[in-house]
């Protein structure tokens, strides 16, 4: 008598905690394809195309200038409020848009997740590149504002631009991994995320200087990784105070912690994706 038994093939990454850097490198072409696909979809059949990336922070800056800069009188001494708020919005929208795109990456690619094996980390990371393209387009307006207000950024400000972008993307990717994994199981994450990002913006010195916060509470504000990024760039580009290396270091540390938490949560949950997505 011949007995037939079912065989189950389980494909797992080789690396510790499921992180295999060689495997990620082997799937680099998939990463490029997904990123390019998202960029094309982002601007396909739009009347203004890439101009939307410029209009969004520009119009928001105009509204904030009218209500907060002139009516409420929230403005730092010696710095025009339009450029003050635009610089904050520039990095904030890079963070919020990257977070939103990453959070929806698994659900938006449900068919791909169900049928094909690949490192799931590819999806949320590749989805954030669209926001980076928007950021680069929006910097054109910021360069124009610098010229208009005759503000010359220091060499330190230019050197810190890349680290500030990296920290912003790390923070957005870390939180994005958490929300993307939660979104697979709980679809109401999609509706809660806009409220969360809006609330977080008011807990970040985007439209107001950090000096408005009582000094005893500023440390709590520095636990928000975007605080260090925005305050550092304002100090470096606009000469608004001294660069706080401690605050920037805290932002980097918290961003790395968020990435670790997000990946660990993904690693523990991804085996159930195909069944519940």
SSE inventory with pairings:
Blueprint: H1 21-26, H2 28-43, H3 51-71, H4 81-103, H5 105-108, H6 110-115, H7 122-127, H8 129-148, H9 155-185, H10 189-202, H11 218-222, H12 225-238, H13 245-269, H14 273-276
Helix pairs in contact: 3-4, 3-8, 4-8, 4-9, 4-10, 4-12, 9-12, 9-13, 12-13
Comma- or semicolon-separated keywords:
277 residues; mainly alpha; 14 helices; globular; disordered N terminus
Short structural summary:
By secondary structure, the protein is an all-alpha fold. The protein has helices spanning 21-26, 28-43, 51-71, 81-103, 105-108, 110-115, 122-127, 129-148, 155-185, 189-202, 218-222, 225-238, 245-269, 273-276.
What does this structure look like?
It is a single chain. The protein is an all-alpha fold and 277 residues long. The chain has one domain (18-276). Helix content is 70%, strand content 0%. The protein is built from 14 helices and no strands. It is globular, with a radius of gyration of 21 Å. The two termini are 41 Å apart. 36% of the residues are buried.
């Amino acid at each position: 008598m011949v007995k037939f038994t079912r065989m189950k093939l389980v494909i797992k990454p080789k690396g510790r905690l499921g992180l295999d850097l060689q495997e990620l490198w082997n799937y680099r072409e998939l990463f490029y394809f997904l990123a390019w696909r998202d960029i094309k979809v982002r601007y396909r059949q739009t009347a203004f195309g890439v101009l939307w990336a410029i209009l969004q922070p520009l119009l928001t800056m105009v509204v904030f200038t009218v209500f907060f800069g002139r009516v409420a009188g929230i403005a730092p001494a010696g710095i025009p409020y339009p450029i003050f708020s635009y610089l904050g919005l520039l990095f904030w929208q890079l963070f919020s848009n990257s977070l939103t795109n990453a959070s929806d990456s698994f659900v938006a690619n449900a068919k791909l997740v169900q049928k094909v094996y690949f490192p799931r980390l590819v999806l949320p990371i590749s989805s954030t590149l669209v926001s980076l393209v928007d950021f680069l387009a929006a910097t054109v307006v910021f360069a124009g504002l610098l010229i208009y207000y005759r503000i010359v950024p220091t060499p330190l400000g230019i050197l810190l631009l890349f680290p500030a972008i990296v920290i912003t993307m790390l923070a957005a990717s870390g939180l994005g991994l958490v929300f993307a994994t939660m979104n697979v199981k709980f679809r109401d994450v999609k509706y809660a995320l806009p409220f969360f990002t809006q609330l977080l913006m008011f807990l970040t010195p985007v439209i107001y200087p950090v000096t408005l916060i009582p000094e005893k509470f500023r440390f709590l504000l520095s636990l928000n990784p975007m605080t260090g990024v925005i305050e550092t760039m304002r100090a470096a580009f606009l000469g608004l105070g001294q660069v706080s290396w401690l605050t920037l270091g805290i932002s980097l540390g918290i961003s790395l912690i968020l990435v670790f938490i997000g990946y660990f949560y993904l690693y523990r949950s991804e085996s159930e994706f195909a069944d519940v997505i």
